[in-house]
From TrEMBL:
Residues 109-191 form the PX domain. Keywords: Protein transport, Transport. Residues 1-57, 446-482 are annotated as: Disordered. GO terms for biological process: intracellular protein transport; retrograde transport, endosome to Golgi. SUPFAM superfamilies: PX domain (SSF64268). CDD domains: PX_Vps17p. Component of the membrane-associated retromer complex which is essential in endosome-to-Golgi retrograde transport. Belongs to the VPS17 family. GO terms for molecular function: phosphatidylinositol-3-phosphate binding; protein transporter activity. Residues 34-49, 467-479 have a biased composition (Polar residues). This is Vacuolar protein sorting-associated protein 17.
């Protein structure tokens, strides 16, 4: 008679399907076997979910010992100190050298302090590829861009790249699973430009055509609802960021074209000023107006570069990050498929064992082979089950951390994009206001006769028009507070192109920095 209990090598030896039925002592009143069998079958069929519910849930300290409270004593502190770009232009742009200092108490390192460590971008990519394949339990942070759209010969590119690599090291140091990797110690302690992954990947993730084919299939049923909903969310963020990048790049190209057209119009007005048929005052006005338009075109060109360097680069990093997270969740789906196959294989081996036990004359070799195959299948199923539980538990913790990083990073990108946009729009307005008095001086009525102000004949040459961009803020916003004021707005880097004297600007600013009306307003209103 076949055994009704599946064989488990980790259970008691009496669970072996090839063992003889044990002779149990009769305890208590006699009962009919048919009644006992009916009660057992009724108990099993009444609630088929008892097996899953009765399984004890392993705590986090057992599944993830790296995250245990006693394991948090290990630290890795990295400070990025410099960035070097040598070689050809392409090599400078794509393969910079990052210089940093390391202080740690991890036992995988040979010493605690490492100074002036230099690593190329190629070495960082080798480390990322190994960590991404060796630690499927966590979301390995994507590498920052080797250069920004500021341009590699720019101080802003230098500072932004250093900041990005510092943030990447901070995220690596905050992950206890990545800290325990010995490959991180090999990476830091290896010589300059010599690092290659030392360890070997135990279970290489599916790649190539097989991966593309499996991704087309319906994902297996996921009991963890949070991770089942998380992957579509990450995928949508990835596609949305790519779409915004395409539109933003198109906008930057249009703004570049606009700046070229503005420069051409400004050059045309400069040539028009040399025409002797116009009045002398008109010639001076055309010359100054042409220089102003050229400066405004330069500002639009700078704004196009800033749009690409702030928001576009940020979305590029988000795209790389979401792709890494999405592929890590896809690897979890592949592991779930392997577990289903292992469970089917284990059931098949159990059925074979039952059939062999039902036979009278069985070869001992066949029995040994069946037991060996059953143990192998059950062991593989057990290992895959523990691995899937470990990955699921850590990804649930990583999900919250990743969402917090994503929100903070995206808000900072939008804030930087907005602040730089406002700064250069105010610079553009400040340049245009420099020629406001010249425009009005061309008309005897002050250029306002068509607005119903024709009674104001003539114009006082000594009158000075109050600029809108002052230390009190932007007068267009009717906001008297000065906490958001940028002094660089009054003196721009384009003043030399329109022959504007800095002294005049400072005098005008001092004159209108605090007049009687503003003083009375400040004295009568609280400033906190």
């Amino acid at each position: 008679m076949a055994s009704a209990v599946p064989y488990d090598p980790y259970d008691d030896i009496d669970n072996n399907p090839f063992s003889e039925p044990a002779q149990t002592a009769e305890i208590g009143p006699e009962t009919h076997p048919a009644e006992n069998q009916g009660q057992i079958e009724q108990a099993k069929t009444s609630n088929p979910e008892n097996e899953n519910k009765d399984e004890p849930q392993q705590p986090i300290s057992e599944l993830l010992p790296e995250r245990h409270s006693q394991a948090k004593k290990f630290q890795l502190m990295v400070k990025v100190t410099g960035l070097e770009r040598v070689g050809t232009y392409t090599y400078k742009k794509d393969n910079p050298t990052v210089q940093f200092d390391v202080s740690t108490n991890l036992p995988t390192f040979r010493k605690q302090q490492h100074r002036n460590v230099k690593k190329t971008m190629t070495e960082f990519q080798n480390l990322f590829s190994f960590l991404n394949g060796a630690t499927p339990e966590t979301f390995v942070p994507a590498l920052p861009l080797p250069s920004t759209n500021y341009g590699i010969s720019n101080s802003e590119d230098y500072n932004k790249t250093l900041k990005n690599f510092q943030e990447w090291f901070d995220r690596i140091s905050a992950d206890p699973l990545l800290l325990r990797s010995a490959e991180l110690a090999f990476f830091i302690e290896s010589d300059f430009n010599t690092y290659t992954p030392v360890g070997k990947l135990k279970n290489t993730p599916v790649t190539g055509l097989k991966r593309k084919t499996l991704k087309q299939l319906t994902p297996p049923y996921d009991e963890c609802l949070e991770l089942a909903e998380f992957r579509p969310l990450v995928k949508s963020i990835h596609h949305l960021s790519k779409d915004i990048q395409v539109k933003l790049l198109k906008l930057c190209k249009i703004r570049k074209t606009l700046s070229q057209d503005e420069n051409a119009v400004g050059q045309g007005f400069k040539e028009l000023a040399q025409d002797s048929s116009h009045a002398k005052s008109h010639g001076k006005f055309y010359l100054k107006f042409g220089k102003t338009l050229t400066a405004v075109g330069d500002i639009d060109s700078v704004m196009a570069t800033l749009d690409a360097a702030t928001l576009y680069d940020g979305l590029e990093w988000i795209g790389e990050e979401t792709y890494t997270v999405k592929e890590a969740l896809t690897n979890r789906h592949f592991l779930m498929r392997e577990l289903l196959q292992a469970q089917q294989n284990s059931k098949f081996r159990q059925e074979q064992a039952r059939k062999l036990r039902a036979k009278r004359d069985v070869s001992p070799l066949k029995v040994d082979d069946a037991i060996r195959a059953l143990k192998t299948a059950t062991t593989a199923e057990h290992e895959l089950t523990l691995k899937l539980r470990r990955i699921t538990m850590n990804m649930l913790l990583q999900k919250q951390e990743w969402l917090e990083w994503f929100n903070t990073f995206l808000i900072n990108c939008i804030k930087e994009y907005t602040m730089r946009k406002i700064e250069y729009e105010r610079k553009k307005l400040s340049l245009l206001e420099r020629i406001r008095s010249d425009v009005r001086a061309v008309d005897e009525s002050g250029g306002l006769s068509r607005l119903g102000r024709g009674t104001r004949t003539g114009r006082d040459a000594s009158a000075v028009i109050k600029p809108s961009q002052t230390s009190q803020g932007d007068s267009w916003t009717s906001d008297p507070r000065s906490h958001a004021f940028e002094p660089s707005v009054l003196k721009t880097e384009f003043d030399a192109s329109i022959d504007t004297e800095p002294e005049d600007v400072s005098v005008a600013e001092d004159r209108y920095a605090l007049d009687a009306k503003s003083a009375a307003h400040l004295l009568g209103t609280s400033t906190f």
